[in-house]
Write a structure and sequence with these properties.
The protein contains 15 helices and 28 strands. With 558 residues, it is α/β, with parallel strands linked by helices. It has 3 domains: 281 residues, Metallo-beta-lactamase, Chain A (4-Layer Sandwich); 150 residues, Rossmann fold, CATH 3.40.50.10710; 91 residues, Ubiquitin-like (UB roll) (Roll), CATH 3.10.20.580. Helix 14 runs antiparallel to helix 15. It is globular and about 85 Å long. The relative contact order is 0.12. Bound molecules: zinc ion (2 copies). The site of one zinc ion has 6 residues, from loops.
């Protein structure tokens, strides 16, 4: 059904997640009212020294806070809900999501004392209800976390379908399959006007394996570890994986022990909302580990990504409060390293091997499967939804391009597939999708507490990390045009002893010479003198060492 020519346009602003895996966030609006679709964070890699988190461009949302009516959380992964604590410091609006998703959000907001700002509104599979200015329908979807939702926005411009993160697992652990039949029905009537779909695995041929197949591998692996203690690392939010690990443990006569704060918390929440079933008799706290026969234990822990403070990392360093590993232990990584985490994961594996443990990972045995659909699954979604317009979302630029190409291959005309990046704003009218421009879409860096960390600071940290710094301290008397004390040169991370002393002396001499000349010429501006000192020092440093440390002149009066 074509929209009426005078129907209100729908505008979508992509605030993150298009151009990287992480910090997914979009604002979808009509007649001036906004619904925020996910608000995630991205973990900072080694190229961002000292940065704890990377957020979407929340400034735009905060500037438009009075127009925001609601937030929809599609599922509870960090790249979809991780920035909510930052956003909710500026907003007070209801958040819609499934019971499990909201349980995870509740914990996050309570931690930062912002729970009273958000009314958490639970949605059930196939619910249809008004959310802000939209009429929204929530459909079940399979992914590597339970209770995710596809959202269908019924708008005056037709149906906008957001796939959420998805795979098409036909034998999901909880039996809750992606509702393809409803998507097909929507495609028939009234039609899918615009599809926004997950591109994470758009460059991978074939289809992802069902989560259930992983369960069978884990069970047979556990059978092969007779007489040994088994420790399995997994994402704490991957409840279906935890279910299968627990089932395998119980089937092979082992007691499940959870280790790691988030593991314990998520297991508790998932058992409470009824999506994780472990008999009370089969699960114990880590505090009880010494009461149990090590050969009849399966420890499930955090740290599969080599996170510095996680339980597994502590074991690898021999610093775990609870477990000392030796050659009677088998450690299983039931995960793939997320791009960027490979080095950290390798270092944890090496540490575990050094303790004597047998280490098994997804490169050796099939103990993991992706939560994101590969090309065959994407083709299936496209062929069921038959969208009129398509914007690939959730992926690095190359993934978005691969998904665009896949849509072309499925018969979509090239002008109906719109490639967008972070910050891009599009509008859907009766004429179709148009690109309105960009609002920026900058990364927002967080270090420690909530707050912006500018690019300048990061640039400085990189320089300091690469070449160190050279500081020059000089006390001058401006009236008499003299140096009173110094130049004293202090450096760190620049060059090794014993060469250092000669280099520092050369820097001091060069600065002294130029400063004395300027002071004799009655230069009385401290900033100008600082610039002069910086140039003299920089020149000498570069001539002698070919390095580019940060030069910090400190010219003081008196
Ligand atoms: Zn996800
Ligand atoms: Zn995601």
């Amino acid at each position: 059904m074509a929209p009426r020519p005078d129907a209100a346009p729908v505008r979508i602003t992509f605030l993150g997640g298009l151009g990287e895996i992480g910090r997914n966030c979009a604002a979808i609006e009509t007649e001036g009212r906004i619904v925020v679709l996910d608000c995630g964070q991205m973990f900072a890699g080694d190229d961002l020294p000292g940065v704890d988190a990377v957020l979407p461009d929340l400034d735009w949302l905060i500037d438009n806070a009075d127009r925001v009516d609601a937030i929809i959380a599609t599922h509870a992964h960090e790249d979809h809900i991780g920035a909510l604590p930052y956003l909710m410091a500026h907003l007070s609006v209801p958040i819609y999501g499934s019971a499990f998703t909201l349980g995870m959000i509740e914990h996050k907001l309570r931690e930062v004392r912002l729970l009273d700002r958000a009314e958490l509104r639970e949605v059930h599979d196939r619910d249809r209800m008004p959310v802000g200015p939209f009429d929204c329908e929530f459909l079940p979807v399979t992914h590597s976390i339970p209770s995710g939702n596809i959202t269908a926005f019924h708008t005056d411009q037709g149906v906008i379908l957001h796939s959420s993160d998805f795979k098409l697992d036909l034998t999901p652990v909880d039996g809750r399959r992606t509702d393809l039949s409803r998507i097909g029905a929507l495609a028939n009537d009234p039609g899918v006007r615009l599809l926004l779909a997950d591109s994470t695995n758009a460059d991978r041929p074939g289809a992802s394996r069902s989560e259930k197949e992983v369960g069978a591998v884990i069970t047979s692996l556990m059978r092969g570890q007779e007489g040994r203690r088994v420790i399995i690392a997994s994402f704490a939010s991957h409840i279906h994986r935890l279910q299968q690990i627990a089932d395998a443990a119980v089937a092979t006569g082992r007691t499940v022990v959870t280790l790691g704060l988030s593991m314990r918390r998520n297991v508790k929440l998932a058992r409470e909302v009824g999506i994780l079933r472990i008999p009370d008799a089969a699960i114990r706290d880590i505090e009880d580990i010494d009461d149990l026969d090590p050969a009849r234990v399966c420890v499930i822990c955090t740290g599969s990504q080599g996170e510095p403070r996680a339980a597994l990392t502590q074991m690898a360093l021999g610093e775990s409060r609870w477990l000392k590993l030796d050659d009677n232990d088998t450690v299983v990584f039931s995960s793939h390293p997320i791009p960027g985490n490979e080095a950290a994961v390798a270092s944890v594996r090496n540490g575990l091997a050094r303790m004597g443990a047998r280490v098994l990972h997804s490169g050796q045995v099939d103990v993991h499967t992706s939560g994101h659909g590969k090309q065959q699954e994407l083709r299936t979604l496209h062929s069921v939804a038959v969208p009129e317009w398509f914007v690939p979302v959730h992926g690095e630029y190359a993934h978005l391009v691969a998904h665009r190409d896949l849509a072309h291959e499925m018969g979509m005309s090239p002008d109906r597939v719109v490639l967008c990046e972070d910050g891009d704003q599009i509008e859907l009218t009766s004429q179709g999708v148009t690109h309105l421009g960009s609002i920026g879409g900058d990364h927002l860096y967080v270090d420690g507490t909530v707050g912006d960390l500018g690019r300048a600071v990061l640039g400085d940290r990189r320089v300091l990390g690469d070449d160190g710094f050279v500081a020059i301290v000089v006390h001058v008397d401006l009236e008499r045009g003299e140096i009173i004390a110094g130049p004293d040169v202090i450096s760190r991370g620049w060059v090794e002893q014993p060469a250092l002393l000669a280099h520092e002396t050369a820097v001091a001499d060069a600065v002294e010479k130029d400063l004395m000349k300027a002071l004799a010429d009655h230069e009385e501006d401290l900033n100008a003198l600082s610039q002069l000192a910086r140039r003299a020092a920089g020149r000498t440093v570069n001539d002698r060492t070919r390095r580019r440390p940060m030069i910090v002149p400190m010219i003081r009066e008196g």
